[in-house]
Amino acid sequence: MSSQSPADSPNPRARVAALLEQLCAGLVDREASIRLALLAAVAGESIFLLGPPGVGKSLVARRLTHAFSSGRSFEYLMSRFSTPDEIFGPVSIRKLREEDRYERRIEGYLPGSDVIFLDEIWKAGPAIQNALLTVLNERIYRNGDQTVKVAVRAILAASNELPPKGETLSPLWDRFLIRYEMGGIRSARGFLSMITDTRDLYADTIDKELKLSGELLDQWSEEINNIEVPPEVLNVLQVVRQRIEEANQSGGMPVEPLQLYDRRWKKLIRMLRTTAFLNGRRAVDLMDCALMPHALWSQPQQRAFIEELVSDAVRKHGYSLATGLTAIRLEMDALNTDIRGETETVHTVSEERPLLVDEEFHRLQSTDDRFTATRMKASDYARLDEQTAVVVGFTDNDGNIRHRIRAWQGSTPHSIRVELRGTQLEVRAETHLVEREERIRRRPHRLLVEHWSRRLDQIDREIETCVERLKHHEETAFVEMEQNLFVDAAFARIVRTNHDRVARAFEALELQSEKARFRMTRDLD
Description:
Elements (H helix, E strand, L loop, with lengths): L11 H13 L6 H13 L2 E5 L6 H9 L7 E5 L6 H5 L4 H6 L16 E5 L6 H13 L1 E4 L2 E4 L4 E6 L10 H5 L3 E4 L6 H9 L17 H12 L5 H20 L11 H17 L21 H23 L2 H19 E11 L1 E2 L3 E5 L9 E3 H6 L6 E6 L5 E9 L5 E6 L2 E7 L1 E11 L4 H30 L16 H30 L4
Parallel strand pairs: 1-6, 1-7, 2-3, 3-6
Antiparallel strand pairs: 4-5, 8-16, 9-10, 10-11, 10-15, 12-13, 13-14, 14-15
Helix pairs in contact: 2-3, 2-11, 9-11, 10-12, 12-16, 13-15, 13-16, 15-16
């Protein structure tokens, strides 16, 4: 019996994994850009590639074209002399002459293509920019007096620079959800592999059964809308948003404040949902959060800052917030405070203790002129016993040994019995008053114990629910975590760090619960 083809599987992951493998075949250090471009296309979003000439920006676009069954592409190098006719198609002379209608012939141009690649996009004039806005955001084009729903599946733009400062290009720049910086090949082995490879990387080598049709993408789009976004992911997003605002206000954001509007956050959730769907899951997970920085930076210098911010949010707050760990801790602390308040009485007791001077000596007092020492080591004092003599060196204030003689605990508190020249005499350690708390247990009322038991039962149920959820994540989500099609497997360590930290915190809460039950019932029998 033949195995099932990836294209026939109801789970999209196998098909997308096979498609990405063929799209990336022969590429060196360009796999990430291909994966992000396909992700953007399925999500219905656009991607901007930043990098110098010759790093493969146009190659990414042309390879991506092969992922779609229709394969209609439009590629254009912008200049300040570019006209709308060259991008959106020439005006139909026949329509204008015979029907007095201003309408463009869009077939073969941007509105009639599946994959669009616009190089040096910031050189586009205002007329082209304005028309691109609706294509990028709503996938519609105003052709004369008609509003045309374009079938564009992927829009890639590229440049070796960011848009010039000013408001003119800001709306266009904001339309690109994913932004990716491309550079030269870093590894020596990869570089040699690239320059000696004779394959035609622009050729269509994708199996037809793996190509994505418009009907399939529309079906996937509906299914993507139903992907769950769990609390841990939403909490990370909230933390990241808050930290960005704090960095903007404090001046901690590199280069300049980062302006992120509500539309970008909404589109970001769509991208995360798409990531989960293409990985064959019904819910977004914390691993997918590693993609967030691609949609959040505005200047390349901000990217590392955002990456660390997202990693830190996942590492510290991922499962912590989602499981309500902080709230459960506060409830447990409040309950323990109540129990201690009703079962323990605290008295403050003053007691004499030997005075410690210079961190290691006790000062001595003697009424006998034969004993001329003024100090002894605290460690020697601690060794004294009433029955067995200990040889001790007694010193003056400068640390000089005045007596090396036998010594015992004295007959009164804090006194020392010494043998000096065949005679025993007592000296005393100088003391001071120290206050300490003394706890006295008392029996709580049974009604209080019943009330505490109900509160503790509720806390235990919450802990059990959270522990079960963490175990479920460990047994299911963690199994495929490192096989995420769009995220580096190294990010899994960050997710696991938070998961393990929260799991240990709940173990500690379970122990606190047991101690609380013992404390409130130990004096009832």
